[in-house]
Amino acid sequence: MVVSRRALLGTAAAGVLAGCAPPDATPSAGPVPSSALSGAPATISASSPAAPLRIAAASDLHYGQNDTDYDRFADELVERLNAAHAKAPLDLVMLNGDLAHGSQHLAPLRRRLAGLKPPLVTVQGNHDRASEQQWRELWGHGFNHSRTVKGVRIACAATSDQAGQLLCADPAWLESALEAANGAPVIVALHITPVTWTRWGIDCPATTGLLARYRNVVAVLNGHDHDQFGVKTRDGVPYLFDSHAGGHWGTGFRGFRLLELHADGRIETRVTDGNRVFSSNSLPPRS
């Protein structure tokens, strides 16, 4: 039986009210509060399911990259995300890969992000070049990790390794994460685009096939492609790009994506630099 995204969201809301959020597919810490450098989990409140899930996604900060003003880029990102949070509280900030330009810059970046107000989760990227142990020590979770926020499953899948290879998501882990959602809506984060419709995307039919088969996947967040800030669709699944937060190439602005997932299955989303809006989309429930 095909279940609509609208019905899935209603089921998820009921699960939040009953305190029955589905368990993680693999053990992981909760989102890391930016003020706690120890990597201890943050607490996310189970607010009313009538309120939309609000998240911000930013990618490709490339902190530490030569010939860029990376300290300013990081400080401005924190300032702009905090300003968005002050206007309408964010349930989560996701840094979707290439946080730093080399693993030696990750710990200084972690300290630089200390003033970020909303809970933070990270996705490993090909330029981060960290070991999984280092990633876990800094951010409180491994490369592949998932959690439930307001009844919505957030699944972050690694698409690279310490050597910086461009990889498809591990299909076994991704399927287990989607199964663990137990029918709840899922937002998936991938740094590398799994379709060759962008210059730096790679062909990952196993990934796109899984995401199409699980009808509760409501959106996929992508990084890596600094020149992309729109929405592309594959087999009914929307793939959302967010420009770049740093680095030396890409769009003429440094931005991030705001996304609201409503209880009726609608997604309202826009890419902004905190002042200007560069793209805006209203996505209907996935049928």
List the helices and strands and how they pair.
Layout: H1 5-18, E1 53-58, H2 70-87, E2 92-96, H3 106-112, E3 120-123, H4 132-139, E4 145-149, E5 152-157, H5 171-180, E6 186-190, H6 205-213, E7 217-222, E8 231-234, E9 237-241, E10 256-261, E11 267-272, E12 277-283
Parallel strand pairs: 1-2, 2-3, 5-6, 6-7, 7-9
Antiparallel strand pairs: 1-10, 4-5, 8-9, 10-11, 11-12
Q: How would you describe this protein?
A:
By secondary structure, this protein is of the alpha/beta class. The protein has a domain at 54-251: Metallo-dependent phosphatases (Purple Acid Phosphatase, chain A, domain 2), CATH 3.60.21.10. Helices cover 23% and strands 23% of the residues. The chain has helices at 5-18, 70-87, 106-112, 132-139, 171-180, 205-213, and strands at residues 53-58, 92-96, 120-123, 145-149, 152-157, 186-190, 217-222, 231-234, 237-241, 256-261, 267-272, 277-283. The chain has a six-stranded mixed β-sheet with strand order 3-2-1-10-11-12, with no helix packed on it. A six-stranded mixed β-sheet has the order 4-5-6-7-9-8. Strand 2, helix 3 (106-112) and strand 3 form a beta-alpha-beta unit. The termini are close together. Mean pLDDT is 87; it is low at 1-49.
- How much of the sequence lies in strands comes to 15-25%
Give the name of the CATH superfamily of the domain at 54-251.
Metallo-dependent phosphatases
The helix fraction, in percent, is 10-25%
The mean pLDDT is: 87
Main sheet summary:
6 strands, mixed
The gross shape turns out to be globular
The side-by-side strand order for the widest beta sheet comes to 3-2-1-10-11-12
Find the structural class using helix and strand composition: alpha/beta
Q: What is the CATH architecture descriptor of the domain at 54-251? A: 4-Layer Sandwich
Radius of gyration: 17 Å
The CATH class of the domain at 54-251 turns out to be: Alpha Beta
This entry's quaternary arrangement is: single chain
